[in-house]
TrEMBL record:
Name of the protein in its database record: phosphoserine phosphatase
Catalytic activity field: O-phospho-L-serine + H2O = L-serine + phosphate; O-phospho-D-serine + H2O = D-serine + phosphate
EC number: 3.1.3.3
GO BP field: L-serine biosynthetic process
Source species: Rubellimicrobium thermophilum DSM 16684
Length: 124
């Protein structure tokens, strides 16, 4: 599941392209085909990210210890603390201070190595 504090119109295509089964993000409101500048309630923030992690683990029969969560902002801290593997990626200093696992000088490929994959396991 891809959970973002950004907007669903961006998160859904990214989730599909990366093979995620679900995307959760904030929904921009529109009227007559034009954006209103408002966001639908509820706003997806820190608690919604924790809730999403709990829901997906329960649905899949996993414990939080079986989950890798990635974040960069303060609204990710609850989710990062709950996950068995919480990783701060190019994160704000406050988030880095809370996460023992940090990726600062690499791309998301580093997450594959953290999960035990080797370069030989990569498809492309």
């Amino acid at each position: 599941m891809l959970v973002s504090g950004g907007f669903l119109s961006f998160a859904e295509p990214v989730a599909r392209a990366l093979g995620f089964h679900e995307a959760r993000a904030n929904r921009l409101l529109s009227e007559g085909g034009r954006l209103t500048g408002e966001v639908a309630e509820p706003i997806l923030g820190r608690e919604a990210k924790v809730t999403a992690l709990k829901e997906v683990t329960a649905r899949l029969g996993l414990g939080p210890e079986d989950v890798l969560a990635v974040g960069d902002g303060a609204n990710d801290l609850g989710m990062l603390r709950l996950a068995g593997l919480g990783v701060a990626v190019h994160a704000k200093p406050a988030v880095q201070a809370e996460c023992p696992l940090r990726v600062n000088h690499a791309d998301l490929t580093a997450l594959l190595y953290l999960q035990g994959y080797a370069r030989a396991d990569f498809a492309a």
